[in-house]
Amino acid sequence: MEPVRVGIIGVGNVLDQYLARASMHDEISVDFLADLNVEAAGKQAAQYDIPKYGSVEELLSMPEIEMVANFTPPAFHASVTAQILQAGKHVFTEKPFATSLTEAEELIDLAREKGLKISSAPATLLGGGMQTSRKLVDDGFIGRPLSAVATFTCRGFETWHPNIDPFYSPGGGPLLDLGPYLVSNLLNIFGPAKRVSGVVSRSSETRPRYKDGKRVGEIQVQVPTHISGNIEFKSGAVATLITSWDIWNASLPFMEIYGTQGVLSTPHTAFYAGEPTLRRGDPRDLTNDWYPPHGGDWRTMPLTHRNDVGRAIGLAELAHSIRHSEDSRLDMDFAYHSLEILLALEKSSASGSYVEIESTCRRPAALPPAGADDPIRFD
Ligand SMILES: NC(=O)c1ccc[n+]([C@@H]2O[C@H](COP(=O)([O-])OP(=O)(O)OC[C@H]3O[C@@H](n4cnc5c(N)ncnc54)[C@H](O)[C@@H]3O)[C@@H](O)[C@H]2O)c1
Predict the structure, then answer these.
(1) Which domain holds residue 219?
(2) Helices then strands (H, E): number in the chain?
(3) Which CATH number do you get for residue 93?
């Protein structure tokens, strides 16, 4: 298969996590880096041996580039994605897909009108930890999946991220920055959602701003910093999620799935590392293992899929779908449904009632198993 030639817009903090493993994916060839800061694009191009760099306009005028990845901060996602579509190129966008449903609908309409694809990060559901978890559920290791808890909590990113303001501005916050990992991975297990309820809170109006490890002022906090919610899926299963930048540390599970015959604890939903652990229900074992938490006979399960794939697996999967005229697993219907669920959590908190979810999506097809030296297949 002729690789899809890819350009990238936005050469900030996340770039390394894509480029570090991009060369292992034969479906793509990253040929151009663009940024408002052309000098920064040049430095990254030199580091990763990428043949060309320059402005967004230069990238979008290159006929050989078929797909463009949008790695700008969230507030620019919709406008940059629209610019890429207008130039006649497929889009892979970092999360969130958009910051409002209106923006998302406009992008979908534009993509359909142009006959182009958009798929959205997170792609962690394609990684080894999550595909192995999915296979264990589909193969019946926990019986019928009934419920789940999914969490992504920390104290915020102001101590390490060099461009912190977007994280505390509309489009950011744990809801849209971390929530997509939880919701996409839950949708991968349970399929589409029916309704949600949520409560959100904000612990302070400002946060300390740091530069080179020193406090240099304040960040205005414009978004909720703690979200807890419940999702009811069309299958009848239910999930609880917590995402927060108000928790210093926790011993919460990353994602646990509870079935009629057992429990599966997955690795972190945002990374490509770790194996799932499984505890099968045994009718002879009626012990309530409350102390210590996670007591009982948990088994670490061998991976059935590769986990060394990096974030570039999302680009490779979209490239495969382009070459084979198939839907991407992370397509715009999936991204829209995920966004509608997340925004509904905040809406539910404001209204004090459940919010029905109007959109739907396909449950992404599982990837074929692949051992450590096998090629990753998307068919
Ligand atoms: N940093 C991480 O660890 C991480 C992990 C996963 C996902 N993400 C996601 O990746 C995206 C980017 O995050 P980041 O941390 O790399 O941000 P960043 O602020 O470090 O980098 C953003 C880059 O985009 C450029 N940019 C901004 N607007 C632009 C425009 N209109 N045209 C061209 N370039 C523009 C900036 O100059 C900057 O180089 C976000 O959506 C974030 O949610 C980040």
Answers:
(1) 127-300
(2) 10, 17
(3) 3.40.50.720
Q: How far apart are CA 47 and CA 102, in angstroms?
A: 38
CA 116, 188, 270, 207 torsion: positive or negative? Answer: positive
**Confidence (pLDDT) at 131:** 98
Tell me if 6 sits within 8 A of 29, measured CB to CB: yes
**Residue at 153: amino acid letter:** T
Q: Does ligand 1 have an atom closer than 6 angstroms to the CB of 252?
A: no
Q: Are residues 10 and 85 in the same domain?
A: yes
pLDDT confidence of residue 298 = 87
Amino acid type, 11: V
Cα(94) to centroid of ligand 1, in Å?
8
Rounded CA gap, 190 and 238, in Å? 9
Residue position matching structure tokens 């978004």: 223
Cα atoms in the Cβ-side hemisphere of radius 13 Å centred on 377: 9
Q: 């996340």: which residue's tokens?
A: 14
Write the single-letter amino acid at 149.
Answer: V
| 261: amino acid identity, one letter | Q
User: Is 56 contained in some domain?
Assistant: yes
Q: Is residue 30 part of a domain?
A: yes
pLDDT value for 290: 59
Mutation choice for ligand 1 from 8, 11, 14, 83, CB with most ligand atoms inside 8 A: 14
The reply to whether 116 and 55 lie within a common domain is yes
Sort 360 into a burial class: Cβ within 10 Å, 0-12 / 13-18 / 19+: middle
Q: What distance in Å separates the CA atoms of residue 93 and residue 78, rounded to the nearest whole number?
A: 9
Cα separation, 99 vs 340, whole angstroms: 10
111 phi, psi to nearest 5 deg: -65, -45
Sheet containing strand 118-120, strands side by side? 52-54, 28-34, 4-9, 67-70, 90-93, 118-120
pLDDT for the residue numbered 1: 81
Q: Please tell me the distance between residue 95's alpha carbon and the centre of ligand 1 in angstroms.
A: 10
Q: Is 8 in the pocket of ligand 1 (CB under 6 A)?
A: no
Distances (CA, A) of 298 to 137, 275, 294, 302, 310: 16, 12, 8, 13, 28
Name the domain count of the chain: 2
Identify which of 227, 265, 266, 231 has the alpha carbon closest to the alpha carbon of residue 247: 227
Check residue 212 and give its pLDDT: 87
Low-confidence ranges of the chain (pLDDT < 70): 282-295
